[in-house]
Amino acid sequence: MTIKKRGYFEESSIEITEFTKALAHPARLEILETLAQNQICNCNDLVRKLPLAQSTISQHLSELKSTGIVSRETDGTRSQYAIEWDELEVQFNQLVDFASKLKRLKAMRVAAAF
Prior knowledge:
By secondary structure, the protein is an alpha+beta fold. Helix 2 packs across helix 6.
């Protein structure tokens, strides 16, 4: 999506889109699951767990970081990754709120039909 078009959409819609895009790859879901199980991991931990190259895992971590649901702390030459639980909950709740909005709109449409 180009920057010019972003102005036409609600910010919450853009945030939901970015969040769901970050979740829209099985490797990213596996990375999140691994981080949830271990609390903190470095890229090598993830390479050992997943059948992907280090560069591919780094790209997926970058996508997750861009939404704020994963953080990176650098300790010398090593980077440690962790889930940002508060941000994950905020973004998940936005998605749930949107789904609830759609359900309400559907209910209004069905009620209007009678």
